[in-house]
Design brief:
198 residues; mainly alpha; Cytochrome Bc1 Complex, Chain D, domain 2; 8 helices; 43% helix; elongated; binds heme C
Length: 198
């Protein structure tokens, strides 16, 4: 048989004790609380640009190990210039095709984001940048560009050509390929109106 009065007085005692302890260890409001196991959040470490005696070159920030690539960054083993551009045209095959709806959708999104400002929504040129005086690019629908192999187009997107800047830093390789699919779509859909092609 539990003595309820005893339980009550023990609980009451505990309450007074915890309130008392709480009052006893109280801190002025401006002093931060006591840190328990401060190493958990104050880990000794070197900041990115801090000198570092652990390495021969004295730097904290390390260069990537030779031969490694950042996750998601597929290599594009072609330099700028015409020779590598035509080699890319001969060697590369677009891994994406217009038979895949998500490729078409993504290609249109990325093209509209990065290319329309100069090449226009339909590829014939006349984007807003051109309206403001930037020398207009040739139409992507002209026979010359239609005959250009996919690999050469992705080379132009990657390295740029003359006044067209490189887009390698902004657009991942897979998205660049999908843009090429979209450019082909623009070309094929324009067949019905050949005057658009020059
Ligand atoms: C800042 C404006 C600008 C942007 C943005 C731009 N281009 Fe260009 N593009 C040009 C110019 C200018 C040329 C002509 C370069 C030359 O004189 O050789 C060109 C040329 C090209 C050519 C070669 C066409 C031919 O018939 O010779 C292709 C293909 C091309 N661009 C595709 C793209 C794609 C795809 C994008 C989007 C990723 C893009 N461009 C973004 C300005 C731009």
């Amino acid at each position: 048989m539990i003595n309820s009065r005893l339980v009550q007085s023990v609980l009451g005692g505990l309450l007074v004790l915890t309130l008392g302890l709480n009052w006893y260890v109280r801190q002025p409001s401006l002093v931060p609380n006591i840190e328990f196991a401060p190493d958990m959040y104050r880990t000794p470490r070197f900041n990115t640009y801090e000198p570092n005696s652990n390495f021969a070159d004295g730097m904290t920030l390390r260069l990537p190990v030779a031969g490694t690539i950042a996750r998601g960054n597929k290599p594009f083993p072609y330099g700028p210039g015409f020779r590598d551009s035509s080699r890319a045209g001969r060697e590369l095959v677009n891994p994406f095709s217009s038979s895949d709806a998500s490729t078409l959708e993504r290609g249109a999104v990325v093209y509209n984001r990065y290319c329309t400002l100069c090449h226009g929504v339909d590829g014939t040129g006349g984007g807003p940048v051109v309206d403001r005086g930037f020398p207009g690019p040739p139409s992507l629908l002209r026979p010359f560009t239609r005959r250009m192999p996919d690999g050469q187009i992705i080379h132009i997107i990657t390295h740029g050509r003359s006044r067209m800047p490189s887009h390698a830093a902004q657009i991942p390789l897979d998205d660049r390929w999908k843009i090429v699919v979209h450019v082909r779509e623009l070309q094929n859909n324009a067949v019905a109106s050949p005057e658009a092609g020059e």
